[in-house]
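ASSEMBLY PREDICTION REQUEST
Request ID: AP-0331
Submitted by: J.K., bench scientist
Number of chains: two
Total residues: 597
Priority: normal
Notes: Please return the full assembly, not individual chains.
Input sequences:
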Amino acid sequence: MHGLSFDIAHLFAGSLVLMSFMLLYQDRLYALLNVFAFQAGVLALSVTWQAYVQGAPHLYITAMIALVFKAIIIPVVLHRIIVRLGIHREVETVIGIGPTMLAGMALVALSMVVMLRVTADADSLAREDLAFALSVVLLGLLMMVTRGNAVSMVVGFMSLENGLILAATGAKGMPLVVEISVAFSVLIAFIVIGIFLFRIRERFDTVDLQALDRLRGDQFREEAR
Amino acid sequence: MAFNGIPFLLAVPVMAAAVLSVLPDYRLSASLNIGAAFMSLAAALSLLIDKPAPGPYILVDDLNIVFVILTTLVGFTTSVFSASYIAHELETGRLTPVHLRFYHAMYQVLLFSMILALTANNIGLMWVAIEIATLTTVIMVGIYRTEEAIEAAWKYFILGSVGIALALFGTILVYMAARPVVGEGHGGMVWTILIQRVSLFDPALLNLAFVFLLLGYGTKVGLAPLHAWLPDAHAEGPTPISAVLSGLLLNVALYAVLRFKLLLAANPGAIAPGPLMAAMGLVSLIFASFMLYRRSDIKRMFGYSSIEHMGIIVFAFGMGGPLANFAGLLHMTMHSLTKSAIFFTVGHISQVKATQKIANIRGLTETHPALG
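STATUS: Completed
Returned structure:
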């Protein structure tokens, strides 16, 4: 039975890495969001499985957060923001997809080499979970680096965070996992609000009432320069 | 019966934040802000007299008591300064009363999270506290809503979040290293238990964890390759926040690094964390001293100066040994006090001269002899 539970956990963790790769080559924002929602769903499944195997009921809360907040609410909100700002056609990779994928593979190889060597004594489930988690984290970072657009940077950050949750739930019996995932959700909610403000100002500020405010600020600065 | 200052210390800012967030009158809330900060300071000083025993979540020892008192002291002086600062900002129309309500509440939340991070005995709790501190400062940096302020806040946000994400990964790795020795559950994240048993931990895992923790919390300290957010955040936010950022928040992040450094130093098999920290400190120092040359914005310049001082402090702690550690602590205390004082002066100067450009600040000794 242990073999089977191990295999299932492995399957989920592996598919998270696969999803991270899928995120890397999406060049349209809607597709990016869909893949991300899918990844969050897989994460929720993975966490649920861990909760069941470890007999740790509090992890179900983390799984629920992943499912409701990250797989449903955030993608829907981001979708709306994209529609409102009319940026759905933006293709904005700084580096081409080919080199990015190669870099991604190199990062996965790196994390395997590092983690598997370092955690030689740990039990096999934890060590492979950690190796996968590190891959997801690094791929998320890579995505943040190769994208210029605020929305896809946030998606990169959230996939990075998926990797962290994977690591935290894979570490058996780790305390405060739920608190940490709540803290992260708050962080992400803030970032999403942040983009909204940021993009709004970038695009519409001249037709905005606040432009008056800004102008005064500018004069202040003009004077300063 | 022993009086325990810790619950009081933590409860004051929380309650103050709740009250301040609904209080409409800014004069009243500014004085309330000062009062709450003073009460925190008093509570922190009471810890000197009577040190509570370490619990599973809270720890007060000789190292962090310095930090706690420093934090509450600078928090108090900054709240006094901010009362006069914001009155002027309100006159010039850069802030509105609604913003101010928010500002005061956030100020107390920030104090709370810093005190929590400093007194936390649990590395997970410490992480959560530092995350809250990051969030509140991001909001405060962006409070002017100018294009530059929002850009600075965004940059800070992204770099800060990546930093704390890496730090969390490091924290998880520390737990993984602790688990075979300490056992599952809460014990694996309680610092006092970790430090007793750390010599039995797997050194390889600890090494890797420290790399992540140094990079993660190092981002918040403003160490050289990861400092990009710091000058912007200092230059664009309100000046009291610049003072708190550079006088306190950098210390809090540094404190987190120090705690983990102690863990590593107690494990014979792990790499020596000292040279790593010393190297990063030196790089920051050299880099920042080059950047200091020809800065035109005065707050930005002092932002770089903070990076430089943090470099010196990290270098001192990296060298290790009682003398260097004492030097590091002393320099840190002095840096917090002088840098916040500098920012108070700079705040007044930039308000009376309505500029942050060094070239435009002239004739101060004539118009404002005290500031000059």
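REVIEWER COMMENTS: Chain A touches chain B through 52 residues (CB under 8 Å).
SIGN-OFF: pending second reviewer
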